[in-house]
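DM from R.C. (forwarded with permission)

"hey, sorry to bug you on a friday — could you get me a structure for this? deadline for the figure draft is monday and I only need the backbone to look sensible"
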Amino acid sequence: LDEVARTAFQLPSINSEVSMNCFSHDQPLKIYCETCDDLICSDCTVRIHKGHEYDLISDTYDKHRQIIESSLQPVREQIVVVTEALTTLTHREKEITCQGETVKQE
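My reply, with the result:
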């Protein structure tokens, strides 16, 4: 569980820009269409996605990252609870095993 807690809930930050181009217009994908949940180029905003809600990828990324981070907080709290319960159960299992061995020897 510790490994899951360390790796599964670490969201990356934008450090390097990855350049991808639009299949339709061969322009850089720098805009996120909120309406379609898709990456688009500037040409797409006036053609295919006209009238849709969109924003720069960098701004949208930060907004969605914050939403995901806040959604993960209850999960992180449950990881702590489950880890404590697992530790308690493991300790109790060892106690029962020792008691069983003692009973066998008597």
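R.C.: lifesaver. Helices lie at 2-7, 42-46, 57-105.
me: no worries. DSSP finds three helices and three strands in the chain.
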